[in-house]
Amino acid sequence: MAAQLLDGRILSAQVEQSIKTRVEALAQKGCVPGLTVILVGDDPASQTYVSNKEKACARLGIRSRTLRMPKDISQETLEKAILEANEDPAVHGILVQLPLPKHLDESRALALILPQKDVDGFHDVNMGRLARGEECVVACTPKGALYMLKSAGIPLEGKEAVVVGRSNIVGKPMALLLLQENATVTICHSRTRDLAAQTRRADILVAAIGKPRFITADMVKPGAVVVDVGINRVDGKLCGDVDFDAVSQVASFITPVPGGVGKMTIAMLMDNTVSAAERAARQA
Length: 284
What we know:
alpha/beta
């Protein structure tokens, strides 16, 4: 029996409807949520992602500004743009589109963003609070993935969860979120021995490694819930880190690519931005 689809298109539309209501409530208080995106260079994937963010802002009534900078800018120029956005009360969220060109210090740039305006959830303060189980801004992709699981009513407490990938953007925060839901969490990576033995234990399997169709059906426990975070382009078409056609015959639930976690990433970015505006409005 084929797995049930965790449809990011449907779920993100529901989330956006709720966000619209919150934006309208803020507007009545004279507050328009504002997001500033800093895009350095002309990487095609980054350009597409930023375009999708701009479209989402337009749909929801969020003020969006994209600072497009040439790939050869200096660290000083990048940092000046961040500091100016920090000081602007009309800007509630700041996002530096990653990856940056190699000559720029990514960590230094991200550390300059005020934690309350860090809508990507990458600042050391937010990552530290997440590790401690405290209230914080959560990285958009793992936040969206968890939202999908909980919205489908999938039980997490006491379950074996395996996260394949240990990036600061997805793997580590995803593991921490699942741990907070009382799952038993294993993080696997490129140095893991007998990876398939680890993934076959998983009731919840999250693939976040950036290798197209890497997770095959024989690596998945029958009835497992499979969350595919990967976005890869093969022969001009998008695919995930999971061999969708084969794995969907083994899993109980599965996220598609496209139309899965990627849709929820954008929705959670909008949610984080509006939450930042709501906090600012309360403190005004």
